[in-house]
Amino acid sequence: MKVFLCIFGDFYVAIPMNSVLSLALHDENSLQNVSAMTHNEGIFYRENGNIFVALPKLFNLPPENIRHNIVLKDPDAKGDETSENKTVLFIPEVECETDIPDDKIFPIPKALSSTRFSLMFSGIQFNSRQAVSDAGSGLVLMMDSEKLIQTAQKETPL
Question: What is the pTM of this model?
């Protein structure tokens, strides 16, 4: 599976490329949304029909780590990619793109199934240093974009 890898301290988050509509540098417009999220102490924030997700906040990292924005494809859009209602991820810098074989991705351990954390990730890969720098432990969390969008829509009232 082709993914974008983002480093979060000692581990990576893999965002499947087939769930990404666009990738952009973090800019002044998105900075206002991060400010609102920080003020509200939330991971999710809704404004103008869009939902913003600050992944660094999920891992207790400061918002200064945010370098890119990723707009996710909405699985319910049925081909309508011009819709105003987008889910935007604020993430650290995309380190690289790589291919992770499906047989190298394992289910999230059941011990984590009751945490909010498990709602956003579909799998885990241990000790992966292929195609990435030597920073981090090599632990890779595979994002489940559909679950993330569903969770964000439930947790952010209209």
Answer: 0.80
Read off the pLDDT of residues 116-129 as tens digits, 9 standing for 90 and up.
666 788 888 886 55
Question: Going along 2-157, which residue ranges are E strands?
Answer: 2-8, 11-16, 20-25, 44-47, 50-54, 68-72, 87-91, 94-99, 121-125, 139-143
CA distance 140 to 14: 6
How far is 93 from 90, CA to CA, in rounded Å? Answer: 10
Q: Which residues pair with 117 in a beta bridge?
A: none
Beta-bridge partners for 13: 6, 141
The answer to whether the CB of 128 falls within 8 A of the CB of 100 is: yes
Task: Please state the separation of Cα 14 from the chain's center in Å.
Answer: 8
Which residue has 């900075």 as its token pair?
Answer: 31
pLDDT digits (tens, 9 = 90+) for 51-68: 888 888 877 777 777 888
